[in-house]
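Q: Hi! New to this. If I give you a protein sequence and the SMILES for flavin-adenine dinucleotide, can you show me the bound structure?
A: Yes, paste them in.
Q: Okay, here:
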Amino acid sequence: MTEGAALPLDRVAEGISLPLGLRDSVDTGEQTLVRASDDFGHIVAAPPLGVLRPRSEQQLQELLAFAGPRGLPVAVRGGGHSVYGQGQAAGGFVIDMTSMGSVLTVSEDRVVVEAGALWADVVRATLRRGLTPPVLTDHLSTSVGGVLCAGGLGSASHRHGLVADSVLALDVVTGTGELVTCTPEREPELFRAVLAGLGQCAVIVRATLRLVPAPQRVRRYRLYHADLSGYLADQRKLLHDGRFDHVQGQARLTAGPGWEFVVEAAAHHTGSRPPHDAGLLDDLHHERGTEEIEDLAFIDFLHRLAAEERILRVTGEWLRPHPWLTLLLPDDCVSALVPAVLGGEAQRDLRTTGLVQLCPLLAERLRSPLLRRPAGDVIHLFALRRTAPPADRAAVERMVEANRTVYEQARAFGATAYPINAIPMSPADWRTHYGPAWDTLARAKGRHDPGRILAPGYGLWN
Ligand SMILES: Cc1cc2nc3c(=O)[nH]c(=O)nc-3n(C[C@H](O)[C@H](O)[C@H](O)COP(=O)(O)OP(=O)(O)OC[C@H]3O[C@@H](n4cnc5c(N)ncnc54)[C@H](O)[C@@H]3O)c2cc1C
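A: Thanks. Here is the predicted structure of the protein with flavin-adenine dinucleotide bound:
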């Protein structure tokens, strides 16, 4: 069978006869199934029976109403950036939402988008009107639906919270095939269960997102710190005084045996009056004379990872397995845990491949209740972005195991997972992860997806 072939049969498997309205739209071509059983992680591969590229919400309703009573798993694919099969559905259906990826309307304070739209398309449309979502993820090839399901953390999260926190309204199709519009006031329980809800209760069809005026330019600073304590002191200061519009950071291996820490901060401006560098930097503890400063158009700042991606595509690393781990750490364990992880023997590969992010966040700004975060006012995103060598299954397994070790180490200090990781998670792990929010999620799942067919790739349920 060839890629893109419309289903020539009305039966995708023995005993499964598709309803008429879906027969032309479910693709069972071999290449399509292979693609739907792969993702950015290249670690897990679970082939579905077919892939639906919906042309309307009615088709989504029809598929879910069909799959629910039969207990057929259904996953949604947007940008395909999952790293551990989260968007796959073994023996079921994948909904490829890129067929519903239009930016519908942009008005002065909001944009209405189909959930399969990529963030790059969203900002292209909003910037034409001089507007932007208040917070965006670092990478803009992810889909609106995929990021809203995860929550969405970015360089402006210290100020504006999650990408999901800027959602004003959602149109969703639940696991029972019901089309529902939800907002903080209308169907609030479903609204809260969908945002940062890992696609467990519904497929997002459309989202209305808040917009704010976009700056014309951005002044970007990289501030190198030789020691973690000076770095953390500066990050906490920047978090509380809010002098920068964007705050992130990285740990980088030095030419010597140790690590250095880089504050990555940026301030908006119009171009006619760039910010006064000394006023922004004078009281910080970075190594004087090593700071890097550049001035960028806002759009170039938003696409700041594109050049890196191009290089990684040329070297081939972009297409290798990515056993990534992202955690949220409580402030009081960072200075002990981060050096222990970076120096740990099991984490040796971090010294030779990948990227380590360490970014400060204010807990109160992350409002979607299903995003589980550690206790305390200040928390830190700690991301280990490993790349495995090609065709070395043992290395991938070692890295996944190393992720698990770090997860358990961090969990003992009260850390939580940003739940899009390459680690096996049992239903018991998920129950621990959600803590007091577990019952809320389980109730919403029981009501909106009683057949437990949606988003099986996370492994939340037995
Ligand atoms: C290079 C890279 C950079 C990243 N940078 C960031 C970052 O800066 N900040 C951040 O927070 N995250 C980041 N992520 C993580 C990323 O945001 C999540 O993995 C997100 O879920 C990816 O969305 P997607 O549509 O690309 O992925 P997909 O794999 O297509 O989908 C991911 C999950 O979302 C669900 N889903 C997708 N669309 C819908 C929908 N319409 N309705 C219901 N469920 C849906 C799927 O079922 C799947 O489980 C990054 C990932 C990569 C690979």
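A: Residues 25 and 192 are 31 Å apart (CA to CA). Let me know if you'd like me to explain how to read the tokens.
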